C-alpha cells in the first residue's frame, strides 16, 4: 500500500517537474551538494544543484539537531573563482522569492564557523556569519528583469570558506510589495521578520501558503504575556491584497484585551531603510479603530478594521536601527493579524551593454579566462577592472599578451585610467582617440613603433607613459594641445628631433632620456645628450628628525669675510629674496649663514678655472647636469671640474644649496669638493679627481677591466660605497637622500677605493620631522625605486633600491636595462631576482670565473634581492646592508687565504 502511494506520487512528479521546476507551483528547490533527488514531507521536490553551479566541493553533515537525516553542503575552498549559482527564471517580468540556508555544523572539524557575503544579480545582498547563527537562513524578494539570476557567495577578509546547504526559488504574485521597491527595479527586499500574529504553534508554510513564504509564530515578541491570540474561522475577500497572505495566517490575530496599547519590538541587524507591511482582517464581530505608531511617529491615526474585510498598511522608514510598532486604541481593542519587516537593499544599475560587450570582446582577445561574467562593476568589480558606480573607469591589462590595441578599446568611453604596460603591443598607437575621459594612459614596455594620430582628442589626458617602446620619428604636435597633461614619459624610445614648443611649459614634465636625440631646441643635440642620466637634481636633504625650529637669524655679511664672497652673496641674496618672498626668508638666511662654515671649500674665479682646465680642453665625463673637465690646480693637484649647463633653469638657490651641502659633507667614501665658482651665470664645481674612473667604466666601458674586478674587489667597492651612503643617510646632518645611486656615480681611486659622487643639485627643502619627501620622480632608468615612482614619496629606501641594483650588477656583471636579448631578461631586477632567490648562481658574472665563496655570494645575493623588494618597508637599511657586505667580504678573504689565492 505504502509502496503504491509512493510510486503514484513519484510518477506525478516526473510528469510535472522538468528543468527543476514543478509546473504546478514554479518552484525550484536545490539541495546543495546533494547526490539524490527527493520529495520532502510537504511534497516539495528537491533536486541536486550540480546543473546550476560548476564550482565548489560537496560534503554531508549528519549531526544537525532535530534532523536525523542530516544535510548536504556545498563549500568553496578556492578563493579565486566566482562561486555563483545561475538560477533560471521563467517569467522575466515577475517577482520571486529566493531563500537560502547556510549550515556549518563543524563539517570540516575545524570548529571555525565562516562568515561571507552573498549577492543577487548586481546587489550585494547580505553578510552571513555562522558564528552568530548556525544554520542561517536568508530570504530575498527580487524583482526579476532577466531570464537568469546569479546568486553568488563571496569570501570576506578572514571570513573562511563560504558554505551553502539549500537554495529555493518561489514565484510571488507580481504586484506584491511594490510600494517598498521604489522605482522598479532599484530595491530588493531582504526579510527581517514575517510574523503570523497570534499564532504560537511553530511556523506556517507551504502548502498553507501557496507561495511558500514561512510565517513564524509571534510568541517570542514582547510583551507576550499581555496579549491573547484569537483564531476564528471566517471567509475573507482577499482580492484587495496584492500580497495574497494565506487565509490561515489572517485567521489568527493578536488582540490586546486589557490595555490600550499593543507594542511589538523588532531588533534590527543594521542601520538601514526598512519596509513594514501590517495585515489586518476583521475576524471579530466588532470594528476596532486605533492609531498605528512606528518608532514614535503616528503613521495612521484611527485605523479601522472592518468585519470580514482584509487590509494592509505599508510603511517605509529610512535609516533606522531599531523598530517598534505600536497600536493605540481609539475604540475597542487594537489588533494585528500579520507583520512583515524587510530591509531595503539597493540594486545597483548594470553597466552599459556597449561596455559589457566591448569587455567581452577584449577578454576573447586576451585568450585568457579572466572570469569576466555578469556585470563588470556590481556586486564586485571584475579583476583588472575598476568602476565608479556602474561606469567602468579603469582597466589594467598589463603583463597580458594583447599584441595590439583593438578597436573595442575605443568603446570604453568612461575610462579614466588605462594600463597596458608590458602587453606585447606592437605597431601604431590607435583606437583610443574616442576616450575623452582618459586621464592616465600607460603603454610603457611594449614594442609600439608609431604614435598614430588624433592625440588632441584625448582632452582629459594627464599622464602619458610610453617609455621603453620602439617609437620612432618625431613627437606629434597634438600632445601639446592637451592642457591637463602634466607628465609625458618618452624615455628609451627611438625618437628624435625637436619637441613641439607647446610641450615646453611649467606644468608639464617631459622625460626624454634614452632617445636618439630629443629636445626643445634644435641645436641642443650635442654630445652632452648622450648621457644616459636624466638631467635632474640628485640630492634631497631631509631635515633631522625631532629637530624642529629655525636657525638663528644671522645675516652679517661682513662677518663672512672675503670680498669675493660678499660679491658672490649679494646678488644671490637679492635673487633668492625676490624669488621666494618674505615667507621663506629663513631659508635664505640659513643658506647665507651656513656660508660661514664653508671652511674647506675654496672659491675660484672663472679665470682660474679656465687656466686650470686649459680652456676646458679635456672632457672626462658627463655628469647629471653638464660636462666634466680635467683640471690641474696651480698646486699641482688634479681636479674634476663640473660646468653646469643651466638648461633646466634651476636657480642659484639650488646651486648654493648644493655647495653648502657638499662643503659640509666630508667622508672618505664620498668625493670631496675642492671649491666652486659662481660668476655671472656660470656655476662650476671643482672636485677631487679620481683616476680610476667609475665603476660603470670598469664594468662596461670601452676600457673595461671587468676580468680584473674579482669578487673580493667587487665586495670591497660595495663596502666602500655602502659606507659612503650610510654616512649620507645616518651620519650627516641634515640627512641626505642621494637620489641617483648608480655604477657611474661610484668612482675609484688609484688603489681601487670607492667613493660616491654626484650630489647634483638639491631641490627640495622640506618640513622638519619628515619621514619622507614628496617630489617629482627623478633618477636613472633601471635604478629607480618603483614604489617611489608610484607614490612620489622619497625615503632612504629609494637609495637602498638603487644600491640593490648596483649589487645585482656586481653579481651579474650586466647593466640594469639591456635592450638586447629576450624580453624576460630586459630588466636586471626582474630577471635576476628569481634566480638569486633560488640560489641559482648560474647567472653570476662569467668573468668571475667561479672564484667566489658560495656563502659569501649567497649573503650578497640575499641582501641584494631584499634591497630591490617592491615594498620599501621590506627593504633593509643601508646600515644592515653594510654589515652583511662586510661579513661577505671577510668570508671571501678567508676563502682566498684558504685556497692560496692572493687577492
Ligand atoms: C535530479 O533531477 C534533475 C532535474 O529533474 C536531473 O537533471 C538530475 O539528473 C536528477 N539527479 C539525480 C541524481 O537523479
Ligand atoms: C533535514 O534534512 C533534510 C534532508 O537533508 C532536509 O530536506 C530538511 O529540510 C532538514 N530539516 C531541517 C529542519 O533542517
Ligand atoms: C508573467 O508575468 C506576467 C505578470 O507580471 C503575467 O501577466 C504573465 O502571464 C506571466 N507569464 C507567464 C508565462 O507566466
Ligand atoms: C561573526 O560573529 C562573531 C560573534 O558575534 C564575531 O566575533 C565575528 O567577528 C563575526 N565575524 C565577522 C566576519 O563579522
Ligand atoms: C500544533 O501543531 C501540531 C502539529 O504541527 C498539532 O498536532 C497540534 O494540535 C497543534 N496545536 C495547537 C494548539 O494547535
Ligand atoms: C472583493 O473586494 C473587491 C474590492 O476590494 C470587490 O470589487 C469585489 O466585488 C469583492 N468580491 C466579493 C466576492 O465580495
Ligand atoms: C520606540 O522607538 C522610539 C524611537 O525609536 C523610542 O523613543 C521608544 O522608546 C520606543 N518604544 C519602545 C516601547 O521601545
Ligand atoms: C474613528 O473612525 C471611526 C470610523 O471610521 C469613527 O466612527 C470614529 O468616530 C473615529 N474616532 C475618532 C476618535 O476619530
Automatic annotation (TrEMBL):
One of its GO terms (cellular component) is membrane. It is a single-pass membrane protein. InterPro entries: Kinase-like_dom_sf, Leu-rich_rpt, Leu-rich_rpt_typical-subtyp, LRR_dom_sf, Malectin-like_Carb-bd_dom, Prot_kinase_dom, Protein_kinase_ATP_BS, Ser/Thr_kinase_AS. Keywords: ATP-binding, Kinase, Leucine-rich repeat, Membrane, Nucleotide-binding, Phosphoprotein, Receptor, Repeat, Serine/threonine-protein kinase, Signal, Transferase, Transmembrane, Transmembrane helix. Residues 614-896 form the Protein kinase domain. This is Protein kinase domain-containing protein. Residues 1-22 form the signal peptide. Pfam families: LRR_8, Malectin_like, Pkinase. CDD domains: STKc_IRAK, TM_EGFR-like. It is found in: Membrane. PROSITE patterns: LRR, PROTEIN_KINASE_ATP, PROTEIN_KINASE_DOM, PROTEIN_KINASE_ST. One of its GO terms (molecular function) is protein serine/threonine kinase activity. The chain crosses the membrane at residues 553-577. The keyword Cytoplasm does not apply. ATP binds at residue 642.
